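Dissemination and training. As part of the outreach component of the grant, students in the summer workshop were shown how a complex can be specified as a set of sequence lines and then modelled as a single object. The example used during the hands-on session is reproduced here so that future cohorts can follow it. Participants entered these lines:
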Amino acid sequence: MSAAVEIVAAPPREAPWIARLLRAPGGAIGAALILLLLFSALFGDALVPYSPTRMAAGRPLLAPSLAHLFGTDEFGRDEFSRVLAGARLTLMVGLVAVGLSFSAGLIVAMLAVLARGWRGAAVMRLMDVLFSFTDTLIALACVAVLGASLQNAVLAVGIAAIPFYARTAHAAALVERGKPYCEAAAVAGAGPLRLALRHLLPNIMPVMIVVATMGVSTAILATAALSFLGLGAQPPMPEWGLMLAGARSYMERAPWLMLFPGLAIALTVLGFNLLGDALRDAIDPGRRGR
Amino acid sequence: MGRFIARRLGLGLLTIFVTTIAVTLLIHIVPGDPVRIMYAQSQGTTDADIAAIRHRLGLDRGVFVQYGLFVGRLAQGDLGRTVRGDQPVLPLILDRLPNTLLLAAAAMVIALVLGIGAGFVSAWREGSLVDTGLMTTAIGGVAIPQFWLGLMLMLVFGVRLAWLPVGGTGLPNLVLPALTLGLGNAAIVARMCRAAMLDTMRQEFARAARARGLPKFLVMTRHVLRPGLVPVATMMGMQFAYMMGGAIVVENIFSWNGIGRLAISAIFERDYPLIQGFILVFATSVVVVSLLIDLLQLALDPRLRRQ
Amino acid sequence: MALKSSVLAVGVMAGVLSFGLARSAVAKNEIVWARYGDIDTLDPQRATSTLSLQVWSLIYDTLLATDAEGRPVPNLAKSYEMSPDGLHYTFHLHAGVKCADGSALGADDVKYTIERAFDPAHPSVTKASWGPITTVDVLDPLTVRLDLAHPFVALPAFLADSFSSIICKSNAGHADFGTMTAIGSGPWRFVSWTKGDRIVLERNPRYRNFGKLAENKGPPYMQRLVITVVPEPEARLAALRTGAADIAEPPLEDVADLRKSRQLDIVIARNTGQDVFFEFAAHKPPFNDERARKAVAYATDPQAAISLIYGNLSEREWCPIARGVFGNDEAFCEKHGYPYDPAKARALLAQMGYGPDHPLEVTFIGWTGGERDKLMQIFQAQLAEVGVKADIQIMDIGSMNARVRQENESPKTRGSFDMMTWSWFDPDILYALWHSPGAYRGYTSPALDKMLDETRVLTDPAARLEKVHEVIAYLMEHAIDVGLYTPGWEWVFAVRPQVTGFHVAPFVYPIFNDVRIH
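and obtained this result:
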């Protein structure tokens, strides 16, 4: 994969990656979905007809109508306002969790590559061990220790994904480290820190950004699942997973309460996945068409 | 091959070792006193009673002593007793473990059958409407949250059509949770399978077979299917681990009486001995099952053995 | 197409498996009761959940029982006397009572049970409720005397509740008592417990009913009683409709429709003893100030909240002790209570320096399940109207009990209050909660302690009633324990119309002795 990164840097006359990204149908749809999410997150509270926590905005459990586009929930709160307000929460959840696991994973991987010898190996074996726990187990253990809240759930999901990012970054960095230009830089007297910052990091970044884009959707799904189980966001937060958990009791009488938050999660996740896919293809033309 | 097995075994043992340390530490870093929680509903317990109980459980000793005590009891198959109801932890978990394994295995079968089937058809009819349709569905399938899919299946097949029971344990009760858990993974398998088969088809021997005039379908079943399954097979151990993780959520939607449901209620009740036991048993079963899957592959795939 | 084929697969499987579902068509001799959760243990001295108590009441029997109004009446003990000084109780047991394993039940078993509860190495979680018992004397095989360190008038009420289930001494030989073994003398004999799934009981052919609220004086009519765990309300309803369950708690939202359509009979427990109330972390700001506590009480409208969430299934409860419990008096409590009055709440908060620009921020703790989270959200919204920002934290009842105490013991942290839930059969609960040091190390005062002490020793009912009322007035005037509603959990039963004879005794004990399924 990193060989292909070299190709991007070299000048076969191709359109710039961003154009290629948007020309792919998946990339365009993904970008559009993310833009929609971003727009809702930034301007949602100015656009919503009601406060997302205001009770009795309408009668309880109203079906969707012009007055309440997505209907109302058991407290008469406007579901449309709540779904829209959930966009900001969801975006923050995804970015914070991935930010945490991304940076921590990158640091661990760099340390392991630079340390070489048994210390590096030990760190990576530990990451292997944590990885084989599965992220679900780590996240649950973290929540069991920290207690249930949205912040803790995000923290838990972030921590749980560190081994994944560390392993991915480590694998990519090892490949780079073995390349002639790196050896040359080392021979020329570049210190380990300089080697890491100037050579390794920039070269593994494209791969890591693709991984992180997809990772946002994983983080969003995992946090929503925790909230759904009651281990994440607490009422009256308009968090989509929590809203689905509440909608369960009204499955028969108000199925729309289950439809909209679920659709919102699915579209957001789809957006990040498509964008990640397209980004990978755009950065790595060799993989296109698969 | 010997080295491969030794490495996998070593990693497995290391994982279990780290788990025992982690669960011993867990009880130290949690806020609140588990013994207090245990007796919180009893108005008669004095601080002296609490101290006596803490002593009996060894909670007043240092971390290293506690770790020793923990491992010592573990060796005798004793994981302590639950905070709630004073029940022995290990049988409580082991009684339910088969249910979780059954659910994960059923979901795995669904994921493999549907995923490989869809991947095959998609690769066979590459570029056609069927291919586009299948792959779009697969992309969507990866994006759908499991707990939402579960609720929708429950709404349609359990509540509206009333074809299947929506809660409890038993064979008919297995269908919906296994589908919920399996469908998302089927989408992943389908994409992986398709990519691998297309790769293989571009290789020399497949082209040659096509050039000899063999129909595409025959080439695929005879020459492409097996190599196309290699990436799926190598991922199986990890896939199973993720099925186990996913089962925790799905069990809670469908009231499937497995260790996931037990774990979530233990977290709510802050029943730390039970949480400790769950983490240990979960990690151990993931390690053991992935190891078994890897060994099975080794036995089945001669090429791996030679490496 | 991946989806389409899966739909097909579901269809095929459903067809194949529907044979398995239609098994209950034959005339049955079995009652299936589906509940949302499981028991914690079969050992009546190791847990306090209603789910556990209900099952113990089927397997074990008690010295006394309750009448329809919740008062103690003779049961295993055909009579008892209290000495004039209130320090000795003598119980005379019925002759010929047998435990489920065939051994005779007598004074020895009572002694075994009580001494087990006081075992210093492993005390009962409800040890204190037995009172200050010092010795248990077996006077003859059917007579037992309890000696107390000081008078304790709440003892008979406790001995009528399943917390005091008489455990046959033959259990002592079983290391797995409480897990796999449970020998009692109740109407049903324990067969098996598949944890998280089901408990199977068989009728106890030797059972004789002395005091339980059942017309049937002999063993139950039905052969088996299966208690299954079905956490999802919708799933329980589906089970009732298909006949997979005979009795279950329905989704509360559907009760009105079910009643109208007459598909299922609805049985509502009366005199549950369950009280849901506000209490406050009174050792730290802001709730060390009476005005803050009163502001919360005035700002919330329990009637509106329970009407929205429970319809007419639950009632406003003004008292700190619920209907059915000695001393409960709605008119008296309402006089001392806090009607919904947001203006008064705002005024009190303004006095303390809080207002819309400077909201009072507190934590609001509650117990999971029973739609209580929804109720809390309504209170949260009502509090927001007067400028109180309450962060909801919902947890299991065990954690909540520990947490509330922790809140009282850590004066530096943010202020908190909680929606607490208690079910008890005697006003002695007020002693447990509010006598120093207090169950949660919360509000206590010497004046209150003195009154509470007297509620335990006054043997004349009229005098005791007066003292209990004094305590209630004190708790309410200082907004320490603000009653909200009753009942609060597991009190609604949907019953298939084929089932007759099912009823629920006070304190939510379902009685299956008279049940027949046609």
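Chain C has 15 helices and 23 strands. Students were then asked to discuss how this feature might be tested experimentally.
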